[in-house]
Amino acid sequence: MGRQRPDTEAITESIDSGVAELVPDLGGRNSWTLRVNGTPQSHVDLDDPTYLEFEYVRRLGHIVDLTAPSRVLHLGGGALTLARYVADLLPRASQQVAEIDAGLIAFVRRELPPPPRVKITTGDARAVLVKARPGSFDLIVSDCFAGARTPAHLTSVEYVRQASAALVEDGIYAANIGDGNGLQFARAQCATVRAVFEHVCVLAEPGVFRGRRFGNFVILASHTGLPMQQLTRATAGDPFPGRVEHGTGLTKFIGGAPVTTDETAILSPAPPSGLWGT
User: Is the pTM value of this prediction over 0.85?
Assistant: First the structure.
């Protein structure tokens, strides 16, 4: 059943990639924040899995709400926030989670057991995609971080093509990335995804779009179309309202940034020191 009420102290565990910490919500909710090497990775409310604390997860939740996927692949596990959300709203959906850190998986399984119909495997995201049968998933969510940075080999056009191959014809690819001043990485990632998918949009808070501060960008893509009007309304209605760029707005945002390949791929930018109080 997992933890039934919040404790007052954090739970710390050594994992493959360093140190994981589950910090309880002191506001009275039965919820926990997972931090890995000091970086917040996930927030989970055990009493209400549909409560999404982090804004970028809310953006991902919007596409779940609007498309009701029945087969979901999560590349990157964390504390399984989005998988719990899907399981609560769509209990018949089958889900697979791929997480490279076996120690983190064991820690989360023990302290915050996952819901039913969520298969968790240890492995690199690209290795999992290589093994996936074509047309296996309705939604693929790429939310992979080594510390606070996206690994280089998960940023290339070859990686996006592998994800595309694993989707059904009208499936959706979603990626969460971080960027800040200059936004060269975010622009290049949008260009890279658009090199594979015809329909692409990117969601972020206005200040993040303007490069005024480091933050999350959620990129959504499909071969057949995206629910743009509904996405725009939902994102604008978030507690921290966001903006959606697509079409000519997305082209302007990309601004001629090159497509990233396996040969040119680099780690995503590191967030500013002290961004999360560490």
Answer: yes
